[in-house]
Amino acid sequence: MMIRIVMLGVVPGNRRPTTAMAWLLAIFFIPILGLALFVLFGNYRMSRRRTLRQAVVNERVLEETKHLELDDEDQDAPEWVRSAVQLNRQLGAMPVVQGNSVEFLTDYRESIVAMTEAIRTARNYVHIEFYIVGEDEEVTGPLLDALVAAADRGVNVRFLFDHLGTMRVAGYRKFLKRLKASKIDWRRMLPLAPVHRQWRRPDLRNHRKILVVDGTVAFTGSQNLIEPGYLRKASHKLGREWVELMARVQGPLVASLDVVFTTDWSQETDENLLDDVRAITPLNVPGAVTGQVVPSGPGFAAENNLRLFTTLIYSATRELRITSPYFVPDDSLLYAVTTAAQRGVKVKLYVSERGDQALAHHAQQSYYMALLQAGVEIYLYEAPHVLHTKCFTVDHEVAVFGSSNMDMRSFSLNFEVSMMLLGSEIVDRLDAVMDEYEAHSKRVSLGMWNARKPLERWKDNVARLSATLQ
Measuring CA to CA, which residue among 275, 333, 267 is closest to residue 16? Predict the structure, then answer.
């Protein structure tokens, strides 16, 4: 009883009411186990050292790019777009910059080939950071060979991968052995090593996907560095592959992505590389795309990605298209999406017919009824494939893509990187990608969803409760 009483005044502090209620229910029903889980998983903030280091980077970026404001870059942007740019600038420090080339890569294998070719051209450095890395002979093997060869010829190859995200992959020990035998400078991100006093909430992860070569070309998006079946026997048996979106970027946005990488590198190595990053100020104009990099994660004081997403969704007046493999919104995002549909915005949501993570998929399905009743069109991408792309477009004015899902994990627990792009031309190109997703999807009707078996609804609702334990 004493545990329950004490935690009533502890758990709600600085937490969403739904999250606090879920934790309190766990503690009330299973006090000892619930308290132990809360101690392990209840705090999603990073250490003071990491938070201060992120703040220092933000201050430096703001100071060195204070001359880059939207007034100077895009006079034609609507007021709501300018407001979103200012929000990103305030929370994540990165400026909006023009003169970029952005090429969307939708073929899984071809995007890895494109990254491999870029690495083979490296003369000075390669910065590579992925949540999951897995080695196979056909798909990722040539890219890893290119990294080893680059390091052998004197290129500074710095490689980051998430500790837990990668160690779960088949062949992890063989992958580590290969890294140790090479000249690549590599680190695990957010390692769990209590012996070395490296401990934190274990499900805080670095979910970013970034490759920068010589500060001139970069790749980012949703794809992990692994073959399209994730080295899983069950996936290969089912014919299941992940559907992804990556982008090849040139121009000043490359420097912004490099700042995100070097910040993560300094967090794991204590090595400061910021002085080596090319100036974000445009030095050349490889294209006509205006954009802004949006870093987010527990190292920031605010949930940068969630605040941007809700701001843009509330600004929509005509059309909103969302692709997310894990659509498990908090109340603020759910209200933004359903309100958009209720006020006449045409809202389309693209998700997988069958998810790769059962708990997350059931939690996602628990929101379909509210979305359908509000008028949201839901499209299920054909099984057995997993639609893993994370992107959305607003009113043919703004496109957002990157590593961030629209779920509470991506908002609070994961380090993510997104990119906001401005203008109808680039938005049309991303809409064309979602047109292709729609062609491979079936639309869910309210009647069809109402006809589901009670047991399926029960599973969805239980999973929804667990999703709030953040």
Answer: 333
Give the CB-side neighbour count of residue 140, counting CA atoms within 13 A: 17
How far apart are alpha carbons 217 and 214 in whole angstroms?
A: 7
Specify the 3-state DSSP secondary structure of 178.
helix
Residue 470 has pLDDT above 50, yes or no: no
> Where residue 72 falls among pLDDT bands split at 50, 70, 90?
very low
Is the distance from CB of 323 to CB of 447 less than 8 angstroms? no
Reduce the DSSP state of residue 393 to 3 states and report it.
Answer: strand
Higher pLDDT, 43 or 298: 298
Q: How far apart are CA 178 and CA 85, in angstroms?
A: 43
User: What are the CA-CA distances from residue 90 to residues 18, 93, 255 (Å)?
Assistant: 27, 6, 18
What tokens were used for 318?
């005509």
pTM of this prediction?
0.90
Q: Which one has a higher pLDDT value, 200 or 30?
A: 30
The count of C-alpha atoms lying within 13 angstroms of the C-alpha of 86, restricted to the half-sphere facing its C-beta, is 8
- Alpha-carbon distance of 75 to 315, in angstroms, equals 19
The amino acid present at 55, given as its one-letter code, is A
Report the C-alpha gap between 277 and 447 in whole angstroms. Answer: 55
Is residue 144 helix, strand or coil?
Answer: helix
Q: Identify the residue with better confidence: 11 or 463.
A: 463
